[in-house]
Structure formats: C-alpha cells, structure tokens
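User: Before I run my own analysis I want an independent prediction to cross-check against. Here's the chain; please return only the structure tokens and, at the end, one sentence I can use as a sanity check.
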Amino acid sequence: MAEGVKDVRTRLTRIGIVLLMTYMICSCAVSAGTAAARERVCRAAADCIETACACGRETRTAEGMPEIRRSQDSLSVRIADDAEYAWFIDALQRYPDCRRLHIDLEGTDTIVCPDEIAAVLDLKYLYIGNGGCIAYRNVPTLTYPIDEWKLDHVRSIEKSLTEAVLSGSLRIRDMLTIELDESYTGADALPAAALLEKADCPNVILFWDGKSGALCDAAEDMEDLAEWEHIQAVQKTAAGSLQCVYRLDEGGRRYISYEFYETTEGGGSLLADAFISVRDICGEEKAAFDIIAFPADRLGKYTGPYKGTRQRLSASEDLNFDGRKDLVFDGENGGSMPGGNYTVFLWNEEEQRYIWAADAPKRYDRIDRNRQRLLGRSRLSAGDEDYQIYECRDGAFHEKHLEIRAKTADAQGLHWNVTGQYYRDGILEARLEMRYGKDGTRRFFYEQIGCGRGREELRIAGDLTYEDVSRIVFSEFDFYWH
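Assistant: Structure tokens:
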C-alpha cells in the first residue's frame, strides 16, 4: 500500500500546483474585470481536491489487502491468504475490461476457484501460479469461457476442478497448460490421461519441472493412454524421464508428443528421446494409428521444453505444396513463432503416414504460397544479414542463400563496403560487391563463380544504392527489402 499512499501524495502535490496556478489566473481575471472566470477556475480546483480525497479514502479502505496492478486490459496481483483472495474476488467488479489476469499465490495454500473469476471477467488469458489449491465452486452465474489458462507450480488441483474442465462446465477455448513439480502435494492426483483424451480444447500441455521424478509421478491414470505401452518401452531404454506432453487437435487428427529429458551435469536438461502419436479423432475409434519415432540425430538439438503457453506442434501448413498438411515439431525454447529449430515430418500419401524430412529447413520465417517457397531471414548485426529461399522439387528441399556482409570503409564510419554472396545448395555461385573510393564514390563489382570471366565492374548510375543493385542481380530475394 506504500505505493498507493505515495500516489496520493503525488496527486496532492499536483493539486498544490493547481491552486497556485488558480491564484495567478484568478488574480489576472479580477484585474481584467472577469470575476466569472475566477469562479469557474476555483470550482475546478475544488473538484480536483475532492477527487484526491476520495482516492485517499479508497486506499485506506484497502489497507492490508493485495495491490492490484493494472496495465491496459491486464491485471496482476499477489495473494497471500484466503482473506486476500476473497477481497480480490469482490474487487473484480471494478475491472470489467480486464482480459488478461496474472495471480501469484506466493507459495501459499490459498484456495482459488477459476469459475468465480470467469463469472465476472471475460478473460482471454488466466495465469495462476507459485502455490495455491485450485478448486471449482460451480458458480451459477458463469457466462464466459477462458481462451488460455496456465496453472504453474500449484500445490494441488481438486477433482472438482478437473471434472468441471472435462465436462465443459469450465470451458477452455484454446489452450490448457499445467506445470508441476515436487511441491504438488494435493490429495487428488492429476488425471493426466483424462485431460489428454477428453479435455475439450485444441491444445493441452503438461509439464513436470521437478529435480527428480517424472510426470507419471503426479498423475493417476497414465496407463489409460493408448500410448502407455510405448511410454513404458521408451522409459526403460532412454536415460531420461517423461517430463512433458503436448497435445494438438487439428483437422480431425490428434497429435501428441511425449518428451523424455535427462538432467545434465550443469543442472540443465537434454532431450533423451521422444515420439509423436497421431490418431484419427473424426470417428468413434480413437486408438493410436501411428507412432512417429523422433530422429536420433535431432535429439541433441533440444535442450529443454518451452515452458510458456505455446504449442510445440503444428499441423496447419503444407510445406512442400503437395496439397497435404505437414507436421512440424518446434524446438525453440523461448521467444515467439516462428522458431529456429524445426523438425519436419511430411505427409506421404502413398504410405498414408508422416515421414521425417531430413533435408527440410530447420528454420523459416514465412511461407510464400503464391511462389511455393519457404523464406528465412536473420540479422546477425547492424550490417550482416542472411536470407534463405527453400523450394521442394522432386521430393527434396533445395536452398538458395544470400549472405550480406558490411564493413566500414573509413575510420569515421561514414561509408560502408558491402558484399553479397549467393549460394545454391551450399555452393557459392555469385558475388556482388560495393566499394567506396577515397573520393567517396561508389563502385560495384559482380562475379559469377566458376564461369571463367572473373570479377567485372558494373556501370551503375550514381544514385543507386546497394539494395537497388541487389534487386536487379539477385531478383529472387525481393523480400530482402521488406
């Protein structure tokens, strides 16, 4: 509350300035014979003082209660006991525009009921973490579902809550994420298999973040999964333990990745093994119809799951433009899409299954559907950039790579020499250079590697930039300037 009192003091200081300005304005107004102006200004100052006093009364009323931080359509609050939680629920009526809510329970066993919150707020995102016993009160006025919901290192999740999620009483429209560790000591074990099989939302993500043990230790029904035998088989042979599961429902299919991690000497984690289950959920039969083994030489590329609210899997894009959607495992551990460590599985129509594409790009930024290509771009520094084009021909991906490098041409850094090198499937084929002379003039040189003609100077109009010339020489990379 100290910050709230400070805020009141700040307002009173500002009022003092207003009163001083009022006195000056009123004096000028009277001297000019405009007493009416003085009356209007003084009345405004009095209203301002009354507003500040009301703010002070509200602050004193909330003494000892949690502070609610507000930013646009988001609220953030730290709650330490049940009394603070009850006060917070009552206070929610004052924030009807809140769409994102973050609740930190400060390692306590405070009971929190998401349906009480959803009955008041139309939320897009709800985070409850760092403790708490999560339950369900069956609030009859519940009117809104929640788009994304994350339970992060909570102490317990009561069956009343998971039953409400599974029945649809508490609906999650897009994503449910649950991350647990050894502090999960609730009487009710997590019904992990039921959530993975029956939760009515497209994305379900389960994490185990303990220093020892596995996700199976917090769950009560993993043996009910269609993939249970495969989980056991991997668990016996892999060095790691099952620590995270991602479920994605897309296009009538259910994709579930099971990831097994081992702890490294430095305390980090490394992907020891993984597999992806693919099943048809259009019909009544929901048994797994395919298990995709994760390629062994890709395991060492992943150093831990992304513990946010982003789905690991995607199956919504046709990457080789054959009319079929393909499956991508995104290994990026942080940041936002697109990631930088993809493992791609292409749909094979003849075999009716996904097959790992070893030559598919490990990174791309966007898909150019008109020209049927994948595009990549990365900035290494202010003057160094890389651009990639990936095209699939005859079942194989081919790469075109434009490498841009810039160095200062003078001690003052006023001019920059630029070199662009063009590679096709890793082989250097052309080079375009821009060089500054001592008199400040630019000269352009182009070389086609291996043709025997050597480096040639181009006749370029003086007002054309390097980007202008590159647009002509390397015309396929027109996205370079966007």
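Sanity check: Residues 2-31 form the longest helix (30 residues).
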